[in-house]
Specification:
Elements: H1 21-73, E1 90-91, H2 103-111, E2 135-138, E3 142-160, E4 178-185, E5 190-198, E6 205-209, H3 218-228, E7 236-243, E8 252-255, E9 257-263
Antiparallel strand pairs: 1-3, 2-8, 3-6, 3-7, 3-9, 4-5, 4-7
Length: 280
Amino acid sequence: MPRFPRNPGDPSAPPEDAHNPRSRRMYQEKVRHHTGEIQDLRGSMNQLIAKLQEMEAMSDEQKMTQKIMKMIQGDYIEKPDFALKSIGASIDFEHTSATYNHDKARSYWNWIRLWNYAQPPDVILEPNMTPGNCWAFAGDRGQVTIRLAQKVYLSNLTLQHIPKTISLSGSLDTAPKDFVIYGMENPPREEVFLGAFQFQPENTIQTFPLQVGVRGHGRAAAMFESIFQNQPARTFGAVKVKISSNWGNPRFTCLYRVRVHGSVTPPKEQPGQNPSPQRD
């Protein structure tokens, strides 16, 4: 029988008398034992690798969630918002439609599992864009008047609605459709036409350019353009958003957020400015 060389520093090395059946069995048991340990270690490493991959995937999901929330909140619109409640903007309730707070509204909102079904109008002046955190008025015609934080030279107005992917009803039929913007002064209560537009709910955030008498479309806009095209820029302390239709809901219309942009200093004239997109 061949003799096995023995390494005194290796306890698993076969003994010198490996030809002895008992010694051979002990050696084989040690080999099996170490083989089992190696297999267990390999299994633990595989589990660790899988866990690390899972954590990496979760990290990607969190990054995607942050990106989506950033899109929802509209952080990429780098324009000052003078209709922000936290800086002093408020709702002129005298010139704002009543909140949709009928008994039938309660069952409907609860049916799609929304909370606070009757939010006040000033919710549209806050950046919270969670589903259901909107102001609703009855039917498809209504208006809201916003007292700005200060008098400004208006440039744009931004409307924002939640995307269909997070709508609990799976529909965007409560989103506003056709609307008109007026600048208001106090006193007196003069309404100045600033534009007529259409909101497309597939684009959750849309910014519309405003300019006295030249940003609307149709006969009314042409009339205002001829009247005001030579008048100097002016400041407004309030803005009225007058909605004339929504995207199909017969009971109520929802506004999620309205932002008003401009500057406290007179804007520079920009000849040849591109006209706003045409309405459908």
